[in-house]
Every structure is written in C-alpha cells, then in structure tokens.
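REQUEST ID: PR-0412
SUBMITTED BY: lab tech R.K.
PRIORITY: routine
TASK: structure prediction, single protein chain
INPUT:
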Amino acid sequence: MQTPSQQNFRVQLGITVLSVVLFATKIIAYFLTHSLAILTDALESIVNVLAGFIGLYSLYVAAKPKDSDHPYGHGKAEFVSSAVEGTLIIGAGILIIGQTIQNLIDSKPIASLDKGLILVGITGLINYVAGNICLQIGRRNNSLALESSGKHLQLDTYSTIAIIVGLVVILYTHWNWLDTAIALSISGLILYNGYRIIRKSLAGIMDEADDDLLKQFVTILNANRKQNWIDLHNLRVIKYGSTLHVDCHLTVPWYLNIHQAHEEIDELSAMIEEKFGKAFELFVHTDGCMPFSCSICDKMDCTVRQYSFTQKIPFTLENISSNLKHGSNNLG
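STATUS: complete
OUTPUT:
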C-alpha cells in the first residue's frame, strides 16, 4: 500500500508529464492562430512545466524519512517549492504584460481561430480534471505542493475559458483589440494568484498558526471528549509537508497513575488518527488537576473532589491555544 508521500509523488509525476504535453499543444495553437491570448495561455504553461519539475523534486525530498539533521523530517521542502511556484506564476504574469505591449507595437493578423479554439479547449478540459485530482489528493494528504499544482491547473482552465469566449467573439465580430484586452485581464488574475500561493507557503515556512486546522481540532475534540479530559491547552499544530506535528497539554485527574494517564493519551491519538490519518506525530504533556479544576470537572465518581461542579467548559480556539489550565476564570 502506498504511503501519502509516495502517492503525492506519483500524482505530481503524472502532472509534470501532462504539463509538457499541454504546453506543446498550446504552442501549436499559437503558431496556427498568432493569437496573443493563446500565446498568453502558452506562456503560463511554461510555468506549469517548471513548477511541475520543482514540485516533483520537493515531494521527493519531503518523502525522505527524518534523520539526525532533520529530526522533524523533510516536509518543509513542499513550502519552499510552493513559494518558487508562486514566484514563477508572478513572473509569467509580468512576461505576459510585456508580450502584450510588444504586440501592440508589432501586431500580427489573427488566423485559423477555429482550429486554435479546438486545441485550446481540449487543454482546458484536461487541465481542469487534472487540477481537481491534485486538489483532492493534496487536501487528503495535507500536501501544499499538490494543492498549489491543483490550484494552478484550475486557474489555467479558467483563463483558457476566458480566452475561448474572447476568441469566439473575435471570430464573429473581428474585434481584434479584444485579444489584447483578454491577455491583460488574465495577466492580472495570474499575478494575484501567484501572490496568494507565495503568501500561503511563507505562512507554512514561518509556522504561522492555521486557524482552519485548529478549528477542525476544536470540533473533533468536543465531539469525542472523554470524562477524564478536564481540559486541553497549549495546543500547537504544525504542518511539515503531509505530516502534522501536534503538541498539547492535557489535564487529567491528579490521582491517575502513569499507565492510566497514558491510556488517555492513546485515546486522544486514536481520535486524531481517525480524522487526519496516520501521518502525524503527537506529543502530550499530562497535567494533574488542581482544586480550581473541580468547578469545571463533571467526573461524578471522584472521591477527592473539593468543590462542587459548576459548569463544563467547551473547548474553543482561544482556550485550547492558551498556555494556562482552564479554571473558573474561563466560565462565561
């Protein structure tokens, strides 16, 4: 059975080969039509090819096991790859703007639009299907490199659709100026999406808190909370490629022995595995409850309770991220 890292690599390999074929198809379409809009699409495909090889190498590196030099593994290589891909996308946008200006100075007549439309339409359909596969597998395996590839391929599809619509209009109206307008509009969209990919990759490199991921943890913790989990705090979730590293403090009854406390950690680990798969590492520090914990603890069979139970505090994004135990000050 393939590991998530192996599956990511095989998918990226297929995408890389596909990007080379689609780039060649768009170049043929450009030479048939001399359409600047189609050239725009082809230039963006150069980025697809380069990004494909970069992503392939990054997934190869990310799949390597941890070693003495990289105790957390090599997963961060995916963030670097994504940043490079975003930079290449921005470069393509700038190149397209430059080519558009050059075309205004030395324009060529548009020809054979019907044949060009067929070729470009086929590439757009294939790109969308491939991008959707990348996104689904990337999200399932927590692979930013695959997600970036998928978003880029789907962006390529949307720009292709815009180009096809514009070229159809040109075919029937002979408004050749629309060719330039389409190219400039798509270049703006490309620049914006390049920025978004770089922003997300830098967030991963800097270990920025992922609020969406933490909210998922809050939801499953509340849905599967055990009676001995008095509180859970100081939660940190960091993504290293397809692997999640989870650190937290778990407050349990102070009288549990080591084996009993470890059983609680095992249950927490099983809960995370059921939701996120086996690609994670869990490090839990267990805390014994304090007298102020009694008011938020609903363990009715406790024989050493010092204060009456008042209210159970649900886990929230704020209190699981705090480095303090939950107490009466958390009651709302």
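NOTES: Residues 211-330 form a domain with the Alpha-Beta Plaits fold (CATH 3.30.70.1350).
REVIEWED BY: pending
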